[in-house]
Amino acid sequence: MLELDAILTDLRDQGWSQQPVLSAGVLEKIGGYFDANRARFKEAKVGPAGSQRREASIRGDLTLWLDPRDLPAEFGAVGASLSELRDLLNEKFYLGLKDYECHLALYPPGSFYRKHSDRFEKTSSRVLSFVFYLHRSWEKGDGGELLLYNQAGEVLREVEPRPGSFVCFLSEEFPHEVRLAGKERRSLTGWFHDKTLS
Question: The pTM is what?
Answer without folding.
Answer: 0.96
